[in-house]
Amino acid sequence: LEEDEELAEEIPEGPPSPEADDPPKILRMQTVAPEDFPTAYTSNTQEEQLVLEYVENFRRQFVQLYPQRKELLLCPRNEFGVEKFICTTIRSTHLEYTELYDIATCAAFVAEHVQYETLYDPTQFPRYVPSPTSVLMWQTGDCIDMSMLLVSLLLGVGYDAYVLLGYADRRTCLADETTEQLPDHLSKGQRVGKWGPSAAAAAAG
Asked: Please, which residues have CB within 8 angstroms of residue 118's CB and are 6 or more apart in sequence?
C-alpha cells in the first residue's frame, strides 16, 4: 500500500508540467489541446473506470504473487494525463489509402513516416503512452508508440494484430545500424520507391 501511495504521488493526475530536463515525449504532450480531441481522450466513462478498478485489482494480485517480477504495463497515462487501460489505446483505424491494406506496406509506412525515438529509460516501461492519433500527428514515437499505431492500422483493415512487449539487445533498442551493410541497390546509388525495402525491414525488426 505504501508503494502504491508513493507511485500515486510520483505520477500526478492531469498532463505533466514541463521541465527543462523532461523527455521529448513530455514536451510534445504540452502541445496538444484538449478541445481538439474527443472527450474519450480527456476523460473516462463509468465503464472505463470500472475496467481500471478491475485491472488494478489484478495488478495487486500479480505483485503479491510475483514480487520479484517487473510490473506489467497495464494503465499508463495518455497525452492528457488520463489513465487508460493499455488495450483501449489501440483503436481500429480504417484509412482510405488502399496501399496501407497490405501488411508489409503498412509497416513500411509507419517506419518511414514516424521517427523512431528510444525509450527515455530503456529498462523501464514508459509512464505515458499517447494515442496513435497524436503519434501520427507528431510523426515521432518510441517502440511502444509505433507498435500501437501499426496495430491500430492493421486491425482497421482486418488483420488479427497484437502488440507484444519483450526485451532486445542494446543495438536494437538504440536503432544502431552502424554495423549493417547497405543493400546492393542502395550501395550502388539506385533510387528506391516511396516506401522502400529498408523501411519494411526496420518495421519488421
From this structure: 142, 173, 174, 175
Residues 15-57: pLDDT tens digits?
555 454 568 899 999 999 999 999 999 999 999 999 999 999 9
pLDDT tens per residue, range 150-177: 999 999 999 999 998 888 888 888 888 7
Distance between CA atoms of residues 73 and 59, nearest Å: 10
Nearest partner of 140 among 8, 23, 2, judged by Cα? 23
Q: Given CA atoms 65, 70, 73, 76 in this order, what sign does their dihedral have?
A: positive
Q: How far is it, in rounded angstroms, from Cα 205 to Cα 203?
A: 5
Q: How far apart are CA 53 and CA 21, in angstroms?
A: 33
For 72: left if phi > 0, alpha if psi spans -120 to 50, otherwise beta; the answer is beta
Q: What is the number of alpha carbons within 13 Å of residue 198 lying toward its C-beta?
A: 15
Q: Rounded to whole angstroms, how far apart are CA atoms 184 and 76? A: 43
Across the chain, the runs of DSSP E, i.e. the strands, are 115-116, 140-141
Beta-bridge partners for 116? 141
Number of other residues whose CB lies within 10 A of the CB of residue 65: 8
Q: What is the DSSP letter of 150?
A: H
Three-state secondary structure call for residue 115: strand
- The mean predicted confidence, pLDDT, of the chain is 82
Q: What is the pTM of this model?
A: 0.76
